[in-house]
Amino acid sequence: MTEGPKPVVFQGSALDDLRAFPDAARRQAGFQLDLVQNGRDPDDWKPMTTIGPGVREIRVRDEAGAFRVIYVAKFADAVFVLHCFEKKSQRTSRPDIELATRRYKDLLKELKA
Question: For the whole model, what pTM was predicted?
Answer without folding.
Answer: 0.94
